[in-house]
Amino acid sequence: MPMTDRKLTFLRRFASTVVLWSLALWTILSGNETGFVLLISGLGLVGLLEYYLMLDAKKLPNFKMFGLFCGALMLGGSFYLLGWRRLAPDALYNFEIGALLLFMLVVFARQMFVRVVELVPLETMALTLFGLFYVPWPFSFVAKIVYLTPRINGDPTGHWYVLFLVLVTKFSDMGAYLTGSLIGKHPLVPHISPKKTWEGFFGALAFSVGGGCGLVALMPKHLSFLNQTHAVILGLILGFAAIVGDLAESLLKRSCGAKDSGKFLPGIGGALDLIDSILFTAPMMFFYLRFIMPR
Asked: Domain map of the chain by residue range?
């Protein structure tokens, strides 16, 4: 692909990501929690659908409709229990375990009434279940971050940490692209993504650390649980997780013979292409905040 096309593709995807996440954060900053719930849940479900459609294109068996139902239950339940019921994040674990057990029960029961041969039942159940662990479950940590920090006058304050999460993740993506394009010579994992380089890997870490430190310096009151030391540590953690998330989706697409996960944004890619890194960085951000926040 010519360099001009690579630049254009990167800029389009970066701009689309910024616009979508800006819209998500604007909805909650304006007090429109319902809009935030619909947008985040919508992105998660579209991403899950794209995963199942890639399996369909490769003729891999899956229970798409029930998987989407469980995905909606996991995402919607997170916002309902944390946002409307105002339960602590610990209370959500029982709900998630119950939803996964229900899923496994129904999938096993459903598979018993299908005439199959050899390993098809195991493959169907494994691929369907993996979709839930890959997309809606880690993506639900965005909701957990929003409602993790103390409320002020009844309003959630965690959206500032979601802003930190998204921007540091995208700084990592930008650093990997710019550094890799300018000085990248040594392939990172050519069997998965030939254009990824070690130079881009270290550039991603540098940009994510720099972006994290800059945000903490600019918004010390809104990010009161973080200092510059936390910014450096989180920059390294989120930068690394973002790289792994991007490569994980590249591996998935290569396995299914797909260039993009879908056509959620015409000419740019699918929803899964936009949230692939967030799926890995959101849980890391959540658990780090749980570790440093006072009980």
From this structure: 3-292
